[in-house]
Amino acid sequence: MEYEVRKAEGKLGILIPGLGAVATTLIAGVEAVKKGISQPIGSLTQMGRIRLGKRTEGRHPLIKDFVPLANLEDIVFGGWDVYADNVFEAAMHAKVLEPMLLHAVKPELEALQPMKAVFDKSYAKNLDGTHVKEGAHKMELAEALMEDIRNFKEEHGCDRLVMVWCGSTEKYIEPSAVHQTIEAFEEGLLNNDPAIAPSMIYAYAAVKMGVPFANGAPNLTVDIPAIIELAKEHEIAISGKDFKTGQTLMKTILAPGLHARALGVRGWFSSNILGNRDGYVLDDPDNFKTKEVSKLSVLDEIFKPESNPELYGDMYHKVRINYYPPHGDNKESWDNIDIFGWLGYQMQIKINFLCRDSILAAPLVLDLALFSDLAQRANMSGIQEWLSFYYKSPQTAEGLAPEHDIFKQLMKLQNTLRHMMGEDLITHLGLDYYQELMESL
Amino acid sequence: MEYEVRKAEGKLGILIPGLGAVATTLIAGVEAVKKGISQPIGSLTQMGRIRLGKRTEGRHPLIKDFVPLANLEDIVFGGWDVYADNVFEAAMHAKVLEPMLLHAVKPELEALQPMKAVFDKSYAKNLDGTHVKEGAHKMELAEALMEDIRNFKEEHGCDRLVMVWCGSTEKYIEPSAVHQTIEAFEEGLLNNDPAIAPSMIYAYAAVKMGVPFANGAPNLTVDIPAIIELAKEHEIAISGKDFKTGQTLMKTILAPGLHARALGVRGWFSSNILGNRDGYVLDDPDNFKTKEVSKLSVLDEIFKPESNPELYGDMYHKVRINYYPPHGDNKESWDNIDIFGWLGYQMQIKINFLCRDSILAAPLVLDLALFSDLAQRANMSGIQEWLSFYYKSPQTAEGLAPEHDIFKQLMKLQNTLRHMMGEDLITHLGLDYYQELMESL
Amino acid sequence: MEYEVRKAEGKLGILIPGLGAVATTLIAGVEAVKKGISQPIGSLTQMGRIRLGKRTEGRHPLIKDFVPLANLEDIVFGGWDVYADNVFEAAMHAKVLEPMLLHAVKPELEALQPMKAVFDKSYAKNLDGTHVKEGAHKMELAEALMEDIRNFKEEHGCDRLVMVWCGSTEKYIEPSAVHQTIEAFEEGLLNNDPAIAPSMIYAYAAVKMGVPFANGAPNLTVDIPAIIELAKEHEIAISGKDFKTGQTLMKTILAPGLHARALGVRGWFSSNILGNRDGYVLDDPDNFKTKEVSKLSVLDEIFKPESNPELYGDMYHKVRINYYPPHGDNKESWDNIDIFGWLGYQMQIKINFLCRDSILAAPLVLDLALFSDLAQRANMSGIQEWLSFYYKSPQTAEGLAPEHDIFKQLMKLQNTLRHMMGEDLITHLGLDYYQELMESL
Amino acid sequence: MEYEVRKAEGKLGILIPGLGAVATTLIAGVEAVKKGISQPIGSLTQMGRIRLGKRTEGRHPLIKDFVPLANLEDIVFGGWDVYADNVFEAAMHAKVLEPMLLHAVKPELEALQPMKAVFDKSYAKNLDGTHVKEGAHKMELAEALMEDIRNFKEEHGCDRLVMVWCGSTEKYIEPSAVHQTIEAFEEGLLNNDPAIAPSMIYAYAAVKMGVPFANGAPNLTVDIPAIIELAKEHEIAISGKDFKTGQTLMKTILAPGLHARALGVRGWFSSNILGNRDGYVLDDPDNFKTKEVSKLSVLDEIFKPESNPELYGDMYHKVRINYYPPHGDNKESWDNIDIFGWLGYQMQIKINFLCRDSILAAPLVLDLALFSDLAQRANMSGIQEWLSFYYKSPQTAEGLAPEHDIFKQLMKLQNTLRHMMGEDLITHLGLDYYQELMESL
């Protein structure tokens, strides 16, 4: 496989379904960064470096200086929401960023009016959408979205577009017949099949319009055969699902460490308290189920209890999310981990993470948008497994277990970039340093 | 570089200076495992698996089935201590393992009498050694150790030996002239140079006798040019320093995770409470200094503040160890980490690790003994950087910065084993899965 | 009111419905204390002291030396359970105490066979009782219990009896017509009224037999007009409800402290993880409801939001109990408290209590038994509000708000004892020390 | 003793040595409260209520409506500092309050210029005073302070004055001969005796001028016979020492709760991290010693290990304060408490308090000023033990052990107020409710 990565010329439009806390925090932040009053901390594409060559070469360029990414100056934002508030109003309402910061970019944010959303209350019972599209059937809604996309591209003179889902978690559903083929799916759109979730309609519209799609929620969305097939047909990059922030981020950091040391785990209890709109939606059991499945999956894949029954065979894993208004967007997690070591002696780890939900998620949206655009320019279509790093529940080729260990995910991401640019892959073997040393004696 | 790994035939003697809590926990544990009443949890050599080939091949053998390691049945223990207690008495005194377990292996432990130790009170003011060697000068002490080694090997019919330092942390010293060459060092031994610490005398004796040496404390020991040179001359594997357990283990797990995500760190405060002999020795500021240097180094190397000044340039890192008798060997750490994300917004992580010092350290001794013996049989002499995984402060070739990120250390260890056995190195690139997929369409 | 406290002569029988973790921990403990191999820590009647007179008098006798309590030597235990295991078997199964300790009192525990229980699965869906009484109606069951009581007293030659409910939490019910009068209640017994819970049948039997009753669970039990009336008629001491241990204990310690300092509270989130039978029963929402009501009530009464709306008017209080098998009886609670101080500035308190459920509860059973017996001998019949100290949800006279502040509860308990024995009540005024001082100048 | 409490007419001047974080937070706050833009949370005199009479009477007036306190409108602030910054500048520098809030009261704060301080570098090595008084001897400095007081009173037309020490902790000293009598002390002032600390010079000046004095730091200050004698002679109210905030506040809340339940304590480890000027001063071991003595004393008095050796005889108590700049004024404490219950079974409590040092201290300064003024108007001169509630290390009459239990302290404070105003003292006996009930049947 040879890559010829097209340059990032012209404007990149980032289209976002769901202009809530995460999206407004991203947009306000990018504007603040462009004005030089803030920094894009937490964004690998903006702040991260990558080692190239041997340790002794001392090559550690910024990623954005190594691979051709769209420049922040060339980004244009757009999006849909079930509320008609402009992005400034929505950001004030979200209470994530200080009013002082928001006022500094007020004109840019006020100019951003959401387009009417595709909404289905049965998928988010705790929400009441008022700013929504109407249509005879779901295909008509999909076409309305495509019309939005077309107009947006033209109006803003965009060279390329990407779409990142930042909407709420939808209720839990399992893939069914309507999701299996493009034909069945399109028929479902026409028949208003209830198993077609709003997020899938966005994904369908995006792929049909040649727009890469990244899914930040635990919904199925692009993780169904119909959309995967469509993406291959149109040669579009897709990825998902569920931004990996907060507690799950910590889990996929810590669990590989315990596993590396062959320490056993008897129980892992995870509690979360948060008080934002996301917390409110997840207070509904149907929506929590979707999130729970996403959150529970990570440990099994990392610990592989079937291969290590003495260490992880009896692990009890429980995740709770509690809506707790006093905290607002300041999500807090508390984990109790019961581990055991030498001769079975027990120990405990407690982690208390006082985090901020949208602050952790916003840079992931930026990175996914830029990397999806990069993949598209490198002709890497279909599922982008190398973006697993950003997801709680990474989408992979059928039959391939997702990798949850964040350090393997990082290695995969970095080696993909190196491979793309024709640099040597890194294995950390490093015996050569010592060989040379010995030869030189 | 081609490896021809000799098989692990005959008995392996593990010689341990310092038969305190860690060593007795190891020895009692190995005996219990041999009797089938317990399991060697936390030992990578005994419980860990390694992936070989492509993900879809499903090859994940136990490490001990993949590389030729000494069998637990073939291990014989021996050691030195400043107290005359046999291993059973010392283990009872250490209060790490339950009396019931210790009684189950009482005969084996009682049979183990420590040899008289080389001791110098100026290196451990809080200890009072009574079971110690006397000699006109340090060279005479070194020769007495060599005599011990010779006798032990003969007496127990050992094929091979390894030595692992499990003694207390010695007071802080900087390398000086006497440590620079073999000649200066040997002259220093004859002149009773105060800069030659007891642990160096053990290391000298080991290397001269052809015995690989691993250093579990933060002392210089084998990390001086004289011993490195000697190890090359005699083609002996050496490694160090300071077993990575508890808080530092957590640090080298968590810090790479924060760095991976380009999250900034303003402060990291680490407090420890422990009540064992180790805690008592570290209550002396001179000895704590040695440990502090070892503990503080890890973050700088992982975060590289010089390359990432906006993220880590102002990080304040403080480590405290408090002697707290009520906890005994149950070391507890508490970390407060002040991080910042998108636009500089602050978050906090608190980690409370209720660990057990010796339970975490014991399997490291076993692994280091077995892997040092393996390296020796593979003709890998000198500094074993691939064993960095086990150390707080890994020893490397001069001019090469130590790698502290536990996941890079693990990758290095695993790829070294793969390399040794002629297997493909793993890069986690994995694009081929998708290529094949696309070709098959 | 004049007290003439009868002496504690002869044997005291302690009858316990529910011989599970708490009861077996109590019984094994009392036997161990009697053998001199352990101490009754946590029991105010056995270990606590009381100050008498002025501070300068230095009078601080043990409570058991100050008021006439039954001696541990004179206690005989009996009880009912839905499982036929004897107390040794039940204690081994509960896994609270070490096998070694239980074996030291094995004969005493094995001798204790539970009587058949009154059980109604609709009140505890997660339990399956097999060792249960049968009867045509609930009055017949009550009579069978009375027969048990009569036989027990005779068989063991008891002078006096007390009953303490240590059974599971029953499902939530509200008081209804059948609970309002003795007549309605007795009719309900005959008619098998579903609103009469098993614990009420025990309470009815006890009071009818002249046996004081203390209620350790959050069930209504003796907190209904019918039983209160019956207790007055028979001049019997009753009290309840729900042993105050663990998280609620901490809450009624901490909340008065915050209130004392006029610190505001915005939110209090309480999470619990436990893995014993109690946790399993509470996994059923109906049973959890009963516990939740009991647990939620404490803060409102202490903070009085209606009097202090600026400080506590918007407080959000949430309690979660999670069944988490790896912990067994080692209940662990985690509280996050969002407080605010001067000018509304926010602060947080996190409390992590690694407690042991039955270890905390067992001494409360002992104290309640001994103090109920004392009250009875002092002719203090009806509701014993001075025992509020032991309860999550103290029973009071109608129209009187329960006092939850543990320090006011303690003051009430101590001043009641002082009053009973004719000592001066203590007010902590203490100005006299300074008056005398000034006069002496 | 009969009280005739004079009314609070005219202006009250509050004079503060040390216009640092605490004092500026207080002053800015009072100004903000006077403007109606904030509330005096945490101040018992402003927000607290007191129960009067029987529970059923429902009388719970605000304390400020019950006893005659100075009104916030009638307060005038003044003070001394070693830096010349006005209060606005000092408050901005302290970074406790948001700039927006400080700007809202900028004119009031800017008008407040500190008077030159009495400073002695040997008592606070880490400070460099530049705005200091000079004098031939300490008596001259005392006279200069008296002149300041006289001028302030006249200039602002104050009816009454109080002084509250808010300066840094001075180095540790023990009382010596010079502190024993007024004569020796005054001779020492003339001779520049090094054992006379700056805070004592302020206290001497205050008492000589008829100004009540409250001591917010752990220094001896007014807790020496010379000043106590002087206070009696001049009939002046004095009290001390060391504002009870943060960790010690939590300790005197929690420890009485554990003691109430006869739970044993094996160890209590307390760690603090803070980054303000106070933390910097306490980084010097001499100054920390003064604070440590104050902090360590509280547990012994509450647990009384000599009376309860089985429960508290072996308690190990350790307190650490760590200077940690990233936190600024946001002091954070972490406590680990090793307790044991029934049969000696061990449990642990961990408390993590994310507090704000000056936010907790400011309202204490206000309360102490207002209550000291009240005491003075009630002719209660000498040591005010009833203000123990506010102090880590309460000053008492010689031979009288200080009371540390915050709930006894509160009872003492409240009953003193009730006593002062001729209300019944409260004992929480409450048996009468039940007697009446029974009589009414």
Largest Cβ-defined interface: C-D, 92 and 92 residues
Radius of gyration of chain A, in Å, reads 22 Å
Order of helices and strands of chain A: EHHHEHHHEHEHHEHEHEHHHEEEHEHH
Structural class of chain A: alpha/beta
- Are there runs of chain A of 5+ residues with pLDDT below 50, and where? none
The rounded distance between the terminal residues' Cα atoms of chain A is 42 Å
Q: Oligomer, anyone? A: homotetramer
Write the layout of secondary structure elements.
The structure is a homotetramer of 441-residue chains.
Chain A: E1 11-17, H1 21-34, H2 44-47, H3 63-66, E2 75-81, H4 87-94, H5 99-104, H6 106-110, E3 115-116, H7 138-156, E4 158-165, H8 182-191, H9 198-208, E5 213-215, H10 225-234, E6 237-240, H11 246-260, E7 264-274, H12 277-282, H13 285-303, H14 309-312, E8 316-323, E9 332-340, E10 346-354, H15 357-377, E11 382-383, H16 406-420, H17 431-439
Helix pairs in contact in A: 1-4, 1-15, 7-8, 7-9, 8-10, 9-10, 11-13
GO biological process, one term (chains A, B, C, D): inositol biosynthetic process
Protein name (chains A, B, C, D): Inositol-3-phosphate synthase
Pfam family, one (chains A, B, C, D): NAD_binding_5
